[in-house]
Amino acid sequence: MKLPQQFKGIRLVVTDMDGTLLNPEHEVSERFFQLFEALSAKGITFVAASGRQYNSIVHKLQPIRERIYVIAENGGLAMQGSREIVSTPLDPGTKNSILDTLGRNRNIHPVLCARNNAFVSGHSNEFLGILKEYYTEFEVIDDLHLFEDEVMKIAAYHFESSERYIYPLVSEYEDSLMVKISGRHWVDISHPLAHKGHALEKIQRELGIGPESTMVFGDYNNDLEMLALADFSVAMANAHPNVARAARFSTLSNEEMGVEVVLEKFLESLT
To answer: Which GO terms describe its cellular component (predicted)?
Structure first.
């Protein structure tokens, strides 16, 4: 663990959700909400940034949902309350090509992520059980190819390893799209500007806050762009090696409340 020696000037705190703020049971601690109130009272702004859908993020952060910025769908959508800040949907012309590519492996489970809902084919009851944790709103439809509404991203799940079984199939899209290994089991394919860094940069610009006043917590590759926008970049102990190398500081794992440990120190520095 390598914590900052001082927290002078920080005005914006950004945290990833799964593997970072959420514990292994996918819960937000009561201590975080207490720290949020104490730091908010001192003028600190919070951003929750996740590959999750917007509804799932605000469900986890229900008590403070109207008082924070939310970056959802890996940066494809950013909101502050009911106000939209960023929206970068996937080009509809690429959807079916991506689905065809993912279909080469029967053990890959694609999800079409729309603004307020998600859509799956429903061919695996085991996968649907997992999906409920990440998507509070989803529907089962017969053929994802026939879906014609706006799609923010395509998320793909593999029960064993996204890095081994999904990424090699979709890496061919990296020249024109954003392809992110967003977790041990997930890969996200989206608009080339649909990443957490793009959305965070918009928020920083709106608030007049630069990297020197920003603290970011992350654990996986989809956090790299936003970690680069913070002088106080913090990797979790359970972080992917790429994140551990990119971050300037480190903290305990999400199981050990690593975010709260740093925020405790930050709060102490303000009193």
So the answer is: cytosol
What percent helix, strand, coil does the chain show, rounded to 5? 40, 25, 35
Query: pLDDT band for position 54 (50/70/90)?
Result: very high
Q: What residue has token string 């394919």?
A: 189
* Position 162 confidence tier, pLDDT thresholds 50, 70, 90: very high
In angstroms, the CA 262 to CA 251 distance is: 7
Exposure of 102 in the CB half-sphere (CA atoms within 13 A) = 26
Q: Where are the domains of the chain?
A: 12-87+195-270, 92-190
**12-87+195-270, superfamily in CATH?**
HAD superfamily/HAD-like (3.40.50.1000)
Residue 82 to residue 105: CA distance in whole angstroms: 39
DSSP, residue by residue, 23-78:
-TTS---HHHHHHHHHHHTTT-EEEEE-SS-HHHHHHHTGGGGGGSEEEEGGGTEE
Instruction: Locate 228 and state its tokens.
Output: 């680069």
Q: What does the pLDDT look like over 142-161, one tens digit per residue?
A: 999 999 999 999 999 999 99
Q: Count of alpha carbons within 13 Å of 185, Cβ hemisphere only?
A: 15
Confidence (pLDDT) at 138: 93
Q: Does domain 92-190 have CATH number 1.10.3720.10?
A: no
b/e burial code for range 217-233 (CB count within 10 A of at least 16 → b): bbbbbbbbbbbebbbbb
Cα separation, 87 vs 154, whole angstroms: 15
Per-residue pLDDT reduced to its tens digit, 104-153 = 999 999 999 998 899 999 778 899 999 988 888 899 999 999 999 999 99
Tokens 């079409």 -> residue: 112
